[in-house]
Amino acid sequence: MSKITQGKFKILSNKRVGPDCFKMAIGAPAIVRKAAPGQFVHLRCLNSTEPLLRRPFSLHRINRNNFEILYRAVGRGTNLLAKKRKGDKIDVLGPLGNGFQLSAFSYQLSAILVAGGIGVAPLLALAEKLIKAQRKKDILVLLGVKNKKQILCERDFKRLGARVQIASDDGTRGYKGLVTGLLRKVLRTNEPTNQRTNELTIYACGPKPMLKEIAQISFRLGMAAYASLEENMACGVGACLGCAIKTRESYKRVCKDGPVFNLKEIRW
Ligand code: FES
């Protein structure tokens, strides 16, 4: 694993991008030099020991001298984070964990990126990397949201040249229903991917029931599928075992052995 850096870095921006969602850019060349899509950083939300624990955030975008995180302000830590201003310093530990395996994404393959809600966060960095690695790749992004107000990053993906389809629970935009329903539909109609399913790779991030369903779909169709898992984390570096999950081999730590796993590995 790449070396981990800990230090205080300057916040370059912290903007609201949705009803309760924010995007923060942090200038940290020492971290971005070693970072890969799918890895995460552990941030101290207040510059004191209270709240004591850090919070994990996936790398949303990895730029030349800074990285971005995309987060929902839902609890004490993230609400404190939302109050931070440009120029404030923040304690960062990272990059942590193992990122997405891109080896499965060979020349012939296309990818479907499936996001549930804020699970879109690590998938933008991944799309940037996939498109940079091979510009002709066909990337379809499926964004699952509760309603159209919660759509995040649609324009960012389109700007990269990826195609985007939306699934909303209330039908205010796109397919009405869960994003896994939209995935089934896309695979059934073989449109617009126009690929044999075993030539597709799925990359996903979102709630566990969504990932479990994607695991079942991909297993049945013989597709490769990888996901970034979300777990509560205390240490973030593999020491406390607080983030352990059951896999076919043994228990594994999401922070150290993941957060990206082959979905076939997981025992649901
Ligand atoms: Fe401590 Fe993963 S958070 S082992």
Structure description:
With 268 residues, the chain is of the alpha/beta class. The protein contains 6 helices and 16 strands. The protein has a 7-stranded antiparallel sheet with strand order 4-3-7-1-2-6-5. The longest helix has 14 residues, at 208-221. The protein starts with a strand and ends in a 6-residue tail after the last strand. The model has no long low-confidence stretch (mean pLDDT 90). The structure holds FE2/S2 (inorganic) cluster (FES). FE2/S2 (inorganic) cluster binds at residues 233-236, 238-243, 253, 255. Residues 233-236, 238-243, 253, 255 line the site of FE2/S2 (inorganic) cluster.
SSE topology sketch:
Blueprint: E1 5-18, E2 21-27, H1 29-32, E3 40-44, E4 55-58, E5 61-62, E6 66-72, H2 76-82, E7 89-96, E8 110-116, H3 121-133, E9 139-145, H4 154-160, E10 163-168, E11 175-176, H5 179-189, E12 200-205, H6 208-221, E13 224-228, E14 244-246, E15 251-253, E16 260-262
Parallel strand pairs: 8-9, 8-12, 9-10, 10-11, 12-13
Antiparallel strand pairs: 1-2, 1-7, 2-6, 3-4, 3-7, 5-6, 13-16, 14-15
Helix pairs in contact: 5-6
The site of FE2/S2 (inorganic) cluster has 12 residues, from loops.
